[in-house]
Amino acid sequence: MDASILEAKWSRFTLTLALAAVSMSTAAISVYIFKRKTNGLNSKLSELEASLNSSLEKCASERQGRIRAQQALRKALTQPKCENPEMNHYPMTPIGIIQSCFSTRYGAPRQPLLVPLARACLIFNTSRVPPASLEGLAEYSHCWVIYVFHLNTDLEKLWKNPSKSKFKAKVRVPRLNGGRMGVFATRSPHRPCPIGLTVAKVEAVQGNMVLLSGVDLVDGTPVLDVKPYLPYCDSIKEAGVPNWLMEDNILAVASVSFSEDFTSTLKNCWTMAENKSLYASPDEFQGLIKQVLSWDIRSLSQRNRPHDAVSVKENAELLGDTSDKDECPDETARVHEKEQNSQNSQDVIYNLTLEGLDISYRIDHNSNVIVEKVSPFMHLSNDRNCCNYLTWKDKLQ
Ligand SMILES: *[C@@H]1O[C@H](CO)[C@@H](O)[C@H](O)[C@H]1NC(C)=O
Ligand SMILES: *[C@@H]1O[C@H](CO)[C@@H](O)[C@H](O)[C@H]1NC(C)=O
Ligand SMILES: *[C@@H]1O[C@H](CO)[C@@H](O)[C@H](O)[C@H]1NC(C)=O
Ligand SMILES: *[C@@H]1O[C@H](CO)[C@@H](O)[C@H](O)[C@H]1NC(C)=O
User: Fold this and answer.
1) CA 20 to 30 Å from 324, out of 10, 64, 270, 289?
2) Measuring CA to CA, which residue among 222, 144, 148 is closest to residue 190?
3) Best of 349, 361, 362, 377 for a ligand 4 pocket test (most atoms within 8 Å of beta carbon)
4) pLDDT tens digits for 216-260?
């Protein structure tokens, strides 16, 4: 045989051998892969089975839980009521306190947002409310504030002996000229549960404090809760009110002017307030005074009978009279009579305390307010050291 042919045959043989080897190993690999795949499938299957088992178990226990809860509910409903329903109390405690420009109730607006410059600092109790709770609040323009009518004189009676406290179902409404309405048709502070609701502008948030404006809250008001104001559901376009509310009672005054030496007196007094005040300067504070007095803040009885305002108040209290927010029986409006026998309402001097400063004014027959004097009246709380204008300066641009 030709050597070259032999060589070719040989090489073809080795090639075949090699090919066989290759295909055999491929087969072996495939078997291996198949085996692995099957193993994989098996473990997947048992995994699925296990998870199915566990969800079935969960379902069963949930069903059992539901059944148990339903049984408990049925049992509770069929059992006689708790002997003393007064014992079912909910121990709610204020979580914060208001430091407001309105040092006393007299002058606090009848409605929120009437006085844009009316500022208050809401200080949360950090042992109840960690500052992180306020994260995101500053992104809202307004918030609801739920608070306690802490100045009601009947509070203690109400808490301690609710069944004996003479709660009035109907209250006098200033707009009805003394007519009465069911308490839930009014915003009277004298309610079975003395909780107030107001809305305020969120100016800024810092640490455990919120600076609010447009407030109608008195200094020291305990706060139960704050919730963001959501215009898309909190403002109802087609909402209606009874006719008696349509009459104008907000009573804008004709003008507010200041006595000649008012500005200079205020500058002198300001040193008392400046380190604790929520206002930048005497000028800004004077702006607040003007806004507050742009509304006739006197109660109905003060307006009608300025000279016996105090005795009317006393009578009202004796009669257990309760009326709207501005007509509180325990509010002793500090009315000072210049001339005892004068029948002229413009001779009556009214005093109003803002930021601890006493402001006295007169109001004439044509509803012009003349702000006469300002004098230091009371010290602002020491809490104001950490919650004053400087605290907020950077955020109040
Ligand atoms: C799932 O439950 C069945 C029946 O109770 C049981 O036979 C099976 O072993 C369980 N499987 C697993 C993976 O727990
Ligand atoms: C803050 O809350 C704590 C715990 O409830 C309470 O002991 C403390 O008196 C509160 N502080 C103020 C200033 O209300
Ligand atoms: C207000 O603060 C300034 C600067 O810290 C201080 O000099 C001044 O005495 C303080 N005034 C009052 C009334 O505390
Ligand atoms: C009201 O203001 C006048 C004038 O400043 C003052 O004389 C009077 O004492 C004040 N009344 C009260 C009750 O504070």
Assistant:
1) 289
2) 148
3) 349
4) 999 999 999 999 999 999 999 999 999 888 876 667 899 999 999
Q: How far is the CA of 143 from the centre of ligand 2 (A)?
A: 24
pLDDT in tens, 29-62: 565 666 666 777 888 888 888 888 888 888 888 8
**Residue 311 in this model has a pLDDT that exceeds 50:** no
Q: What is the DSSP letter of 393?
A: G
- CATH number for the domain running over 250-325+333-392: 3.30.2310.20
- Within the chain, all domains assigned CATH 2.40.30.70 are found at 88-152+194-232
| 351 touches ligand 4 (CB under 6 Å) | yes
CATH architecture of 88-152+194-232: Beta Barrel (2.40)
pLDDT for res 202: 98
DSSP tag of 227: E
- What does the block give as tokens for 154? 């009947």
pLDDT band at 107 (very low <50, low <70, confident <90, very high): very high
What DSSP string runs through 146-186?
EEE-TT-TTHHHHHH-TTTS---SEEE-GGGTT-EEEGGGS
| Residues of each domain in the chain carrying CATH 3.30.2310.20 | 250-325+333-392
Indicate the SS3 state at residue 104. Answer: coil
Mutational pocket test of ligand 2: of 125, 129, 133, 223, the residue with most ligand atoms within 8 Å of the beta carbon: 125
